[in-house]
């Protein structure tokens, strides 16, 4: 009986660590980018706003990098949420800013999670073209 309890406890701890760990977003050369004809300060504000509108909690907010985490939700079969989004901003000139967005998903929750790159970029575009 004692061995059974130890095994179940160990399995539970390993499973909890796998579900709780989300990958870190990475901006690679393969990640498509967009250039906005706006100063970096305005684009950074649009990035923060886009995260909030799409349901993310802003975890990191710097001039050249913004990161958000979408809280987990429990669904009928698979939970959603748990994604981490990174937004990289590169100043190309006084009124030109390049943006890359990448969504990282956790290993265990990948089935119920979504890639948010397009949704966030669309929200930023709406905000910056008003």
Task: Describe what you observe in this structure.
This protein is an alpha+beta fold. The chain has one domain (22-128): TATA-Binding Protein, CATH 3.30.310.80. It is 35% helix and 25% strand. It has a five-stranded antiparallel beta sheet with strand order 1-5-4-3-2, with helices on one face. Helix 2 crosses helix 3 (117-128). Mean pLDDT is 80; it is low at 12-22.
**Cα end-to-end separation:** 66 Å
Number of domains: 1
Give the strand line-up of the largest sheet: 1-5-4-3-2
Helix content: 25-40%
How is the biggest beta sheet arranged?
5 strands, antiparallel
CATH superfamily: Kinase associated domain 1, KA1
- Write the H/E string, N to C: HEHEEEEH
Query: From the alpha-carbon coordinates, what is the Rg to the nearest angstrom?
Result: 18 Å
């Amino acid at each position: 009986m004692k061995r059974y309890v130890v095994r179940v406890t160990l399995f539970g701890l390993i499973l909890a660590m796998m579900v709780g760990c989300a990958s870190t977003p990475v901006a690679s050369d393969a990640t498509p980018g967009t250039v906005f004809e706006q100063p970096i300060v305005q684009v950074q504000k649009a990035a923060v706003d886009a995260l909030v509108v799409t349901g993310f909690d802003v975890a990191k907010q710097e001039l050249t990098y913004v990161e958000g985490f979408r809280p987990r939700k429990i669904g009928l079969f698979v939970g959603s949420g748990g994604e981490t989004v990174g937004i990289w901003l590169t100043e190309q000139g006084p009124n030109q800013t390049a943006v890359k967005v990448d969504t990282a998903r956790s290993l265990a929750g990948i089935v119920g999670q979504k890639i948010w790159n397009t949704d966030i970029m669309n929200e930023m575009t709406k905000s910056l073209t008003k």
